[in-house]
Amino acid sequence: MPPAIATVIFAVGILGLFYLNRDGDIQPSKALWVPTAWLLITSSRPVSVWLGMAPRAGTGGIYLEGSPIDRAVYIVLVAAGLAVAISRGRQVGPILRKNWPVVLFFSYAAFSIFWSDFPFVTFKHWCKGIGDVLMVLIILTEQDPMDAIKRLITRIGFVLVPLSVLFIKYYPALGRTLTKGWAMEWTGVAMQKNSLGGLCLIVGLGFLWCIRAAHRDRENVYRTRRLWALGTVLGMVIWLLWMCNSITSIACLSMASGVMLLSERPAFRRNSALVHILVVAVLGIALYALFFQSSGALVEDLGRNPTLTGRTEVWSQVLSIPVNRWVGAGYESFWLGHRLEQIRSIAGFAINEAHNGYIEIFLNLGWVGVSLLTLLILTGYTKVVATLRANAEYGSLAVAFFLVPIIAGLTEAVFRMLASTWFFFLVANMSALEAWAGNSAVSTVEASPTSDPAPFEPQLDHVLGVGPGGGYRLRRFGRFHPRYIGDCSPSRSDECGNASWL
User: How far apart, in whole angstroms, are the C-alpha atoms of residue 237 and residue 250?
Assistant: First the structure.
């Protein structure tokens, strides 16, 4: 098929996916397009690369100077995110107070500017890191954060996944690259195959969650066409993972999907110990396969050698570079200047990450940074497990998103700015139960009594927000009831209650 015809077909198909997945129950605010644009860029390629105006790579100077086009784009998006956060200050304040470990982590990262060899570059990187937090705050201060998360994931998946298929099949100059060993890598819309794998990992988890929710919502009139749209993209995700052969993403998607599907079952909701056992088992398998099985058989079965494609050598090389072991080189500042040139001369090839998230944090922020990341993980885990017990539908996704970077961090630098796995780790962490309690847009209140409360009172999950004219909007099983017929004002509680739940 000629590429031009394929492009038209894929463009129509992308529009068709959005059409099939439309749902008129609730519309998010236009502010949600800010994190959508942020993720569309960070999950694919910088704007300068899309425009063919990126600075020529090859030296360490590019990491110091950057691209003026990309800098302008990020400034606009961060400024827009900051404006939205300020306008929603009453909701943002409680969320930040509840998530003090996140605030502490980024506050320490800001202080690292003072001992960085490149303070201005470190400051720019920190602004991008804060940009991730601002985008998460926009999501959590939407009228329905869970619906906003669904829409964000589907928007990214409906655009980037089909485009990746189009590039790989019909535009090889855009969707494929040759390595120095003359091996073909499938990159799709991303810069390299591991980035494509990370995109597929996040979209795959999110779409599996959406499919499960849509399948259970049997009374929803939009159910069938939404399943077709979501299932089509999930099939593309599986194909892309197979083509790019990103073992880390494949393994993480398999394990996180299993945790997500199992953790929602009633036995796991009632007994948190089972959730802990499941998570420990998954982490134990990953750690044993990577570090404690001397034969390396499990890793070799996945198509990798015991050195994890040279990662163990990279770890020893980067740890040999002298940096302050307590405070590091500065936030996202290790791979700059003479250190970058030195490690590339040792390794013998271009490299700009440690291929281990925990080592990456150590190099940039030292043992203090590692301790703060550990605090962030421990406090976040208690919150996502509590969320699972309170709201199994969202809690299961939060546990999966939370678990992904912890596993992927063993072989990839995922705890860093502009990484989709880090972004959704923050979403899972900050949207957990304690944070949502401080969000005035999402609060649990008592439902108005009705003439026939028995059929629906045990199934009432939340009453969400206050609608136009002071009315309440109802949600059942963590979703909007398919027969919801408008706002229920206190003066019409009996009539609206009966009509909404019949």
Answer: 10
Burial of 110 (0-12, 13-18, 19+ CB in 10 A): middle
Tokens encoding 258: 């299993």
Question: What whole-number distance in Å separates Cα of residue 398 and Cα of residue 429?
Answer: 8
The full DSSP string for 271-313 is -HHHHHHHHHHHHHHHHIIIII-TT-HHHHHTT--TTTTTHHH
The pLDDT assigned to 247 comes to 85
Residue 90 CB neighbours (<10 A): 12
d(CA 208, CA 201): 11
Is the sign of the CA dihedral 388, 391, 392, 396 positive or negative? negative
- Laid out side by side, the sheet with 460-466 consists of 460-466, 472-476, 479-480
pLDDT of residue 498: 35
Q: What is the pLDDT of residue 311?
A: 77
* Beta bridge partners of residue 472, listed in sequence order: 466, 488
412: left (phi over 0), alpha (psi -120 to 50) or beta: beta
For residues 190 and 44, the answer to whether their CB atoms sit within 8 Å is: yes
Q: How far is CA 134 from the centre of its chain?
A: 14
Residue 322: exposure state from Cβ atoms within 10 A (0-12, 13-18, ≥19)? exposed
Distance CA 426, CA 408 (A): 15
- Return phi, psi of residue 217, to 5°: -85, 70
Query: 10 Å Cβ neighbour count for 221?
Result: 10
> Which H or E run includes 119?
helix 119-140
**3-state SS assignment for residue 196:** helix
Helices 119-140 and 68-87 cross at an angle (nearest 10°) of 40
Tell me, what's the pLDDT at 305? 54
Contact 217, 416 (CB under 8 A): no
Rounded distance between C-alpha atoms, residue 254 and residue 14, angstroms: 26
Determine the Cα angle at 454 with ends 453 and 457, to 5°.
70
Q: How far apart are CA 208 and CA 76, in angstroms?
A: 33
Q: Do residues 501 and 482 make contact, with C-beta atoms less than 8 angstroms apart? A: no
Would you say 332 and 120 are in contact if contact means Cβ atoms under 8 Å apart?
A: no
CB 204 within 8 A of CB 240: no
Cβ pair 446, 490 in contact under 8 A: no
pLDDT at residue 185 in the model: 86
Contact 78, 134 (CB under 8 A): yes
Type of residue found at 216? R
pLDDT of residue 477: 37
The separation between the first and the last C-alpha atoms of the chain, rounded to the nearest angstrom, is 52
Chunked mean pLDDT (size 10), the chain, 502 residues:
92 94 79 96 92 68 74 96 95 93 96 94 94 96 91 95 95 84 83 91 95 86 89 95 88 93 87 91 85 55 57 85 92 88 76 88 96 95 90 91 93 90 94 53 38 38 39 38 37 36 28
Q: Which of 249, 250, 44 is nearest to 155 (CA)?
A: 44
DSSP state, residue 350: -
